[in-house]
Amino acid sequence: MLGRWFIRVFLIFVPLSLLSVFFLFIHTTVEKERSSVGTLEEERGPQVELEFWNTWVHNEPWQEIIFERMKSFEKVHPEIKLHMDAIPHDEYKIKVKAAAAGRELPDLLVVWPGAEMRPLVAGRSLSPIDEIVGNYKDKLIPANKLMDYAVGGKQYAIPTVVSFTSIIYYDKALLMNKGYTHFPETYGEMKQLLTLLRNDGKIPIALGNKAKWVLQSCYLSTIGSRYTGDEFLSEAIRGERRFTDPEFVSALRVIEELNKMGAFNENMNSLDNNQQDDLFIEGKSAMVIDGSWALPKISLQFQGQLGLAAFPAVSGGNGSTTSLSGVTGQGIAINADLSPAKKAAALQFIQYINNEITYKKLLQSQMLVPANIPVPRYVDPVFKEMFELTSRGIAPVYDAVLPSDLIDTMNKLLQDMTTRKGFGPEQVAQALQSKMDEIRKGQFDSIKSVNNPNVAKKEEAP
Fold it and tell me: Rounded to two decimals, what is the model's pTM?
């Protein structure tokens, strides 16, 4: 009887004991995992969130590459969370200016060099990134291509692409049908072609200048260089040359001539630069003048019939006959007001995006890059043609060199020249020079007040 009772107790007690040991093991293991995760999180620190503004709204092939790299970055760095806000280009520039004025810029933002970035630097809205420049300078990227994003000896962004702003994209088959085996080599011959196209009912050149910058950046930057040479802009800023000089007026006259001869679509000031490309892609125009950034989108629609050209030589010009206006672009800058933890995360992001892997992928997508990377062997022949076309010299882009206030005035005046009767090149040139004189006087007065102790004391007085 006692033996049976003992066996029953044994059969009940032992399984319960084993079960208790099992649950104790599970509890201990879970606690260890929690402790391990906790230690890992302590090593990584709390998650950092970064707000990132850019203009990548069209999902173009090169933008998809950047998006892919951003997703990869978040996998490698789970402690950093990106919040991207893609804003249309023209709206973006207005939003950035307003945000900078109220010190409400995002943690990261895409910036353009020159006139677009300098006011942000002057307003102390951007943080220098000198601590990472050594990873690029004369290693992955030549020093002269980093300079576009340097102000006062400090670096504020790393260029992602190289943008040539004035490429003529044309329909080879259409020109062949008109008797042209290649694009005209002189401006006079080009006008003859444009007249022939217009008389046949075809829009010669698709133009979308709604945002006003296209005539300045894609047209005048290269046309101006043909007439004035590349030193004109810096000399005009110093007061050594003037916008009323005959050479610059001649460049303005080209735009007036193109408009008056009906080279553009009538709704040119109602379309943006993406819509102008669509006109060309849809076969409604014979050509379009846009930046190198448009190649991936445009080339998809042409089966070996896309031609590329630079603006042809002009009569009496003092500049190169082959160079194209160009500048590095799509640099990512950092808000000056970030905490040390956020800035460290932002620098990690920039170095992940601007690295050899990204640049190689961009080249494969037909985007020109600032890095020392050879063109892949297997790329679309039209991209090789672009590479060759853009290697014949680089001219300054107006809005990357001139003061932003002057560029705003220039953009408006160029649009006015296409809409206002009796408002021609001479009036535009005089208005530009007056604005330049005003800007230079303001800079002189500012320097004078700083150097004059009496003025300084007066300003400090209550």
Answer: 0.79
